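Is this the right way to post structure tokens for a design question? Let me know if I should format differently. Anyway, here goes:
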């Protein structure tokens, strides 16, 4: 997800490392803050792979800063990652939010709808945080008010996301020439 976030933010605009780190932390920081020891090696890997370019610009106050830009190869890789997210990117809410943050860069409404349909299919599967054997438990079946709270909140969130997904997929289908 870090590489997707790096490519996505640089597709939005060229950035220096500090600003890139701030933006990634704003997107994912409440879950997993991005350490410099993780970010800068990832940047170097992407640069070595030809997905990023680095230019030195004079600093406004002190030392020069390195500004990162996305190459055409980087744009292609970003689009590939968005069009073909791995299952975990669809099923893990935090990873899903990173995909959603940059899905507009995929540009093709049909391809965007395909990704959203994968999430919709996942959300429509019966699931719970708590089970009786193989059977998912519903909030109403629990005596524990805290576990019941988890399931009540999750249900409300899922209903909101399902409604948004269905509306957005319908809109993408119309704009992509399908459903006419």
């Amino acid at each position: 997800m870090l590489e997707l976030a790096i490519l996505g933010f640089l597709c939005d605009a060229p950035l220096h490392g500090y600003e890139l780190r701030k933006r990634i932390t704003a997107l994912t920081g409440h879950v997993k803050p991005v350490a410099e020891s993780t970010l800068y090696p990832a940047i170097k890997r992407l640069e070595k792979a030809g997905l990023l370019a680095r230019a030195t610009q004079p600093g406004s106050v002190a030392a020069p800063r390195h500004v990162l830009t996305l190459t055409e190869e980087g744009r292609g890789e970003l689009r590939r990652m968005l069009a073909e997210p791995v299952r975990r990117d669809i099923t893990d809410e935090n990873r899903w939010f990173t995909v959603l943050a940059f899905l507009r860069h995929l540009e093709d409404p049909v391809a965007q709808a395909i990704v959203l349909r994968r999430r919709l299919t996942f959300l429509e599967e019966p699931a719970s945080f708590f089970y009786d054997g193989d059977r998912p438990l519903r909030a109403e079946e629990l005596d524990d008010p805290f576990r019941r709270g988890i399931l009540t909140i999750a249900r409300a969130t899922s209903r909101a996301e399902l409604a948004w997904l269905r509306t957005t997929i319908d809109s993408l289908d119309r704009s992509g020439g399908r459903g006419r």
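Format looks fine. Someone answered above. Worth noting: The chain has eight helices and five strands. Residues 145-175 form the longest helix (31 residues).
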